[in-house]
Amino acid sequence: MALVVYSSSKKYHDEGVDLSLRINISTSTTNAVKLKNNNKRKMWTGEDDDVEDFISGKKLRKFSFYTPEEEAEERLHGVCTKLKLHDDLWKIKKVLQESDVNTSCRLMISKRLVNQHIVEVWRSGGRDENVRELNAEDGVSVKVWDCDRKKEYVLTMKTHPSTGCSIFLTNWSRQFVSERGLKKGDEIGLFWCNCSDRFFFSVLARAPDQPVYYLEGL
After folding, report:
1. Domain count of the chain?
2. Which of 55, 166, 179, 214 has the fewest CB neighbours in a 10 Å radius?
3. Which residues form a coiled coil (predicted)?
4. Range with the lowest mean pLDDT among 1-5, 123-127, 199-203?
5. Per DSSP, which regions of 126-214 are E strands?
6. Distance CA 17, CA 36 (A)
């Protein structure tokens, strides 16, 4: 509530305006403090009917900054509490072929995807040595975080001499194909994070179950 003082004298009129301004500010400040204290009381005593909204809001503020692991996990479960819109997290997606899960013991990624989403990211992060090793005979050792198992693995990545594609070797067959039960038709996702200095991996979709046919009379 504001109190305005009127006077026929300019001097007192000015003083009245000043007084009105001060009372306005004081009243507004007092109301703001009362509202803040009242909200605190509701917040902690549970009197606020929207306490669930408050908790959700607190969680949203808490998740304003995400680690790559948190982003990957939210994408994995099909939810997102991040307020900022962003591109698809999984820059590299592949529906596994027979050669990715058989005795060839390697995962092959196209040259185009590797150049666009790995080599360029490495160079932007000053990892030119990784690029050189990728094209060397022994390849480059890379860390891979499995978002589904929440565990880190180490694979060898190198350029295939005849196709120019990149292949993941060493532990791919045992630690991923066998342990994850990967098969032809499964879709996997990958992306590289310069901050974590590793790949992030997830099984995005499983191959549809094949129909089983029974012969009559058997």
Report:
1. 2
2. 214
3. none
4. 1-5
5. 140-146, 151-159, 166-169, 187-193, 198-205
6. 28
Chain segment 160-175, per-residue pLDDT in tens: 999 999 999 999 999 9
- Does residue 160 fall inside a structural domain? yes
Q: What average pLDDT score do residues 31-51 get?
A: 44
Parallel, antiparallel, or unpaired: how do β-strands 198-205 and 140-146 relate?
Answer: parallel
Same domain as 94, residue 199: yes
Q: Kindly state whether residue 139 falls inside one of the protein's structural domains.
A: yes
Mean per-residue pLDDT, 176-204: 96
Beta-carbon contacts of 69 under 8 Å, excluding residues fewer than 6 positions away, are 145, 147, 150, 200
Residue 96 sits in a domain of what CATH number?
2.40.330.10
Rounded to 5°, the CA angle 13-18-22 comes to: 145
* Same domain membership, residue 200 and residue 100: yes
Q: State the Cα–Cα distance between residues 153 and 207, nearest whole angstrom.
A: 24
Closest by CA position to 171, among listed 100, 109, 105, 110: 105
Percent of residues, the chain, with pLDDT higher than 90 = 53
